[in-house]
Amino acid sequence: MTHQDKLPVLPFPTKTQNPQTAPTPKVSQDQLAQAIAALQAALAAEQTKPTASAPTPRETDAFSPIGTPKAQPRWRASQTPDAPEKAGRVGAAAGAVTPPDTPNKDPLAKRITSIHLPRFAMERWHRWATHQGEALPEEIPAALAVEGTHGPVIHATNRAAETEGVHTGARVVDMRALCPDLKVTFADLAGDRHALEKLMLWARRWCPWTAIDGANGLILDTTGSDHLWGGEAAMLRDMEERLSHLGLSANLAVSPTHGASWALARFGSVREVCTADTLPLRMSNMPVRALRLTGDTVQLLNRLGLKTVGDLAAVPRISLARRFSRAELPDNPLMRLDQMMGRLAEPVSASDDPPRFAVQANLAEPIQDPTPHLPALCQELCAGLQHAGFGARRLRVSVFRSDGEVSHVDVATAQPNRDPDHLLRLFDDKLDRINPGFGFDLITLGATVAEALGDSQPTLDKTGGEEADLARLIDRLTARLGANAIRHPTPQESHIPERAEVWAPAISTKARSTSPRNPRPLRLFDHPEEVRVLYAVPEGPPAQFIWRRVTRRVVRFAGPERIAPEWWRDMPGTRLRDYYQVEDQLNHRLWVYRNGVLGDDRGETPRWFVHGVFA
Amino acid sequence: MQCPSQPTPLSRPLPKSTAAAGQATLREIFADHVVDGAATAFALGQLDHQDKPLLWIQDRVTQKEAGRPCLAGLPKGLQIIHVSVNKAIDVLWAMEEGLRCTTLAGVMGEVWGDPPQLDFTATKRLALRAETHNVPAWLMRRGAHPNLSAARERWRLASLPSLGHPHDPRAPGQAQWQADLFRARWRTPGQWVVQHAPAHGLQFHHPTSSDQGAAQHATG
Considering CB atoms only, which of A489, A526, A557 is closest to B80? Predict the structure, then answer.
């Protein structure tokens, strides 16, 4: 059985908290002294009052599925005095154990938040079932199964099933014997993964760097972003509240390293905040399973008598290194220990870089339309770009929906730009395409690509702004019609007519001068159109042919102009072309060609095509 | 083989416009035939680009039926920004946006057929905007009827047999077109035979009897 020593995520009754205004006994003496000093310094009465009389939004229900009114946000009571609404800042300031930031580069200076979603698959399934109107009552045991080697095995359980003894990894038939009325559904692993990816993007509302951590966890690099949410304790509280609105129960922890946060979120207390100086002490009594090791290695360590991280840390380093020299990272306790203690770097590898320039608007209530907030955001972003001497090339408006989705709209500019009015106009028709869902409460506007843009001064005769004027036009056209609709043909070094010009998107290319050419038609067809020859002559173009259902008689012609295939680009067997200028009895001057010549051993009788129209 | 004689030079040149010289405005050009380069060449002949780019907007049907502009065949040094859209309403919108930009040498829009959005109001908007910002605009129509429109000049273009090539009697030489100004605000309507010489621009001639015959032959 896994997660044996893990307490279920039940809300703690407050009465167990009331006598515990003093810290728990496992806290060390110096920590205690520090905490007491800080508490005295920062209005101990203010601090203890909310904890003592903490409102108890303690429902036994762990789920609050989306769609139900979310009147009562749900937090679990924690041992740290963080609970009250406005205590975040005070708590952080009084923060007791927060050390001053060290000036030099410290590997433990980072703050990593781990979010563990212990029942992610089950809660997602429950949400889906509620949406379908088939939700089961909480007291009916339910489980999700995946296909195993010997029949289906349990993948996730709800709380009722867990109390009945159903555990993850067991076979479904065995569990049916244990609990006959167990309701079993197959799990949607790909859907869970996809949902977790979306949740990972949504978690960027708290900090720019987020990544997926395992099958049911997220990892966030919240270094320097906690003060935006009123300190780390308040930030964790906000996270738990917002995740509970999504119907997800979560375990959270902040610590200087990824490994320690992972361990604290899964094996620590509720919403634990661990600092660099208490890290070794706090980690020492963690079980070795908290080191993110595989089951075999954990079993091996237990057999060796190493039950806790402290035991492992007490073993001489060289012995561990010799014993596990060939082990991979998930099997190597020494490397995992180093990661946990910050001796081995493990940065949060977000899937894409967060934009350097981004602004956001936090809204009090979820809204449906971002339009009224955009002008202020554009002004703010442009002020930031101006200050740094940059201009935006790509912009993205993201709305963070209250149901855990992120939807965004992108626009692009042809030149770096930081004119708020112009940038705002680019979003004119686009914002209809944003999907607000049930509303969103956070809007971010980021310059996903920014380029250096110096200050420019207009000349006295008001000339010189042509290029910017044209770029703004291209921006507006691109924003409405798409980048592929606006093209700028530039000449290329080729004799094949369709290759003699390259149609690049105007938003990315610079103008080049044209070079003189042979007589060329005014208009060219995208695809040469074949004609039916009625009266062929041995030399020159056909005397009569049918094109577009009109019989055309050739009155005059000039040519041929022979264009050979480009052997370095064309497929073998491509035939040469003989181009003729032809004037017919309707006075249309066409550009026709014969594909190949008779007897070139490259196919049948050559065919004729119309390729362009002369003036 | 029909070879028209050299027309009498400048027997009735284009009457002077009463508007201010060089006033840019909206001109509408109807092409008699879909696959005729005459309308395109006539519009480009009126263009004085001065190294500025030309905004060229085509709808999807026009691009498929009449082809897209070929860079090598355009007047030397002309840069174009090509916009291909699906609907006529987008052509009009893009033309309006382009006419706001004084950096352009001109705006050319090609619309297929008679879309309901292309009415008097839409053309008047384009004409007023072209005159305000002094950017010339051409609206090229194919498969269309000359319905109500606020374009200041409305032309109908057809091809005439080309002049003989000076060095090759079998080859087509200087192109000639039949231009019919059937509605104009600032000048007298009339019919001309037009040539385009790269050095002199468009040359308007009085239509001779042979041209008339050729034109009738072409349209009949």
Answer: A489
